[in-house]
Amino acid sequence: MRPIIPDYLTDALADVESDVSGELAAYIPELAGADPDRLGAVFATLDGTIYGAGDIDHEFTIQSISKPFTYALALADRGFHPVLDKVGVEPSGEAFNQISLERGSGRPLNPMINAGAITAHSLAGPPGLDPAGRVERVIDGLSAFAGRRLAIDEAVCASEMRHAHRNLAIAHMLRSYDILTEDPTAVVEGYVRQCSVLVTVRDLAVMAATLANGGVNPLSGEQVVHRPVVRQVLSVMATCGMYDAAGDWATHVGIPAKSGVAGGLIGALPGQIGIATFSPRLDAHGNSVRGVSLFEQFSSDAGLHVM
Ligand code: DON
């Protein structure tokens, strides 16, 4: 008997394959050289079963999909109050690279936009950790979510860092409000390394499944973070994960999610499944065009909308 889900996934990919709308992320020159036609999707169930179709073993950089996981590490390492003092949980309604700081305090509105993610990066690991140690903590943590050792794409990292003027400007603003308390350039360098971690769509589905599974990686059995942290992270993904398209996503798809500018997209359904897609062309919000279509299809076909 042929497995049903791979056939379903193959058909779903075929349905979106002809859509070549959207653009590669040109503001990171190395990403503009990616093969725009790559396409893959994976379902990871909570018993550790992986169903996939398309380019499931192709590596690409995690980019903003690292943000919910690093936020989880910051919450786990520092506790809720110290993190909430520095990063809010309100949707910004603005693009991911807008400054979006709370008036007065200078606190970034949420940890999914760059301002909040740069701050969350600075809060990973114990207080006083040096920038290199912090990057190590973040790579170790992302690897635990994926269930395998992850590496950095140095070419993408260098390319982004050479053009990181916007993130550097945001970090300097954060420093001026004492939201960051150290050298802004060193924090941005660490954050860019975090974004340059290489993953496959399969890794991303396992990372999402770890969130769906209350913080326990379904492959390794490791409790990566505790349940209250997962609840916080999934709540922020639900409200802020798709940036200024979060409302459209909540109504059409209804799954806590996060996108990345290399073309990855994850969704985590608590108690059910982790889903990931990969297709590099992006819409105006920086979300994968075919990834969004696939999730709309999955949500409607399988009744996955949580609301
Ligand atoms: O900081 C940046 O701009 C990139 N490293 C990540 C942005 C990103 O992935 C936005 N999401 N779709």
UniProtKB/TrEMBL annotation:
Substrate binds at S64, N114, E160, N167, Y191, Y243, V261. The keyword Hydrolase applies. Its EC number is 3.5.1.2. GO terms for molecular function: glutaminase activity. It comes from the Bacteria. Keywords: Acetylation, Hydrolase. It catalyses: L-glutamine + H2O = L-glutamate + NH4(+). GO terms for biological process: glutamate biosynthetic process; L-glutamine catabolic process. Belongs to the glutaminase family. Homotetramer. This is Glutaminase. It comes from Aeromicrobium yanjiei. The chain holds residues 1 to 307 of 425 of the full protein.
